[in-house]
Write a structure and sequence with these properties.
single chain; about 130 residues; alpha/beta; YefM-like fold; Rossmann fold; 2 domains; 3-stranded mixed β-sheet; two-stranded parallel ribbon; about 35% helix
């Protein structure tokens, strides 16, 4: 991965963005030799070195594949959804958890007990 000092990145941001978009290779911007941010292509680049998918559609598919096993393993009570549509039997907490797992994110919530017991899910309780 190419590395660029922050000063150079600020002075050549347009050129840097064009190079990253064209090559599909991320670029690491550093300050005083320490990593600060990573510039990655928005669309069409190869898979990121940390395993992130190249396209948002890849993460949707990954979330769907994670939701199935979670739904089978974890039994959480479905909360009613107020809607003018017929009620579907989908647990939105599990869908949110599957999305967080597929994106490798920490899930911040005001109600951590909704997500308790889901393997591999990192939950941060914001109600404190």
């Amino acid at each position: 991965m190419k590395t660029v000092k922050l000063f150079d990145a600020k002075n050549r941001i347009s050129e840097l963005c064009e190079t990253v978009a064209r090559s599909g290779e991320p670029c690491l911007v550093t300050r005083r030799g320490k990593p600060l941010v990573r510039v990655v292509p928005a669309i069409g680049g190869p898979e990121d070195p940390d395993g992130s998918p190249a396209s948002v559609w890849d993460t949707v598919a990954e979330g769907q594949t994670k939701y199935g096993p979670i739904e089978e393993e974890i039994e959480l009570p479905a909360r009613p959804v107020v809607s003018n549509r017929p009620t579907r039997s989908i647990n939105f907490d599990l869908l949110i958890a599957a999305t967080a797992l597929s994106h490798r994110l920490i899930l911040a919530t005001l109600n951590a007990r909704h997500f308790g017991g889901i393997p591999g899910l990192h939950v941060e309780d914001w109600s404190l």
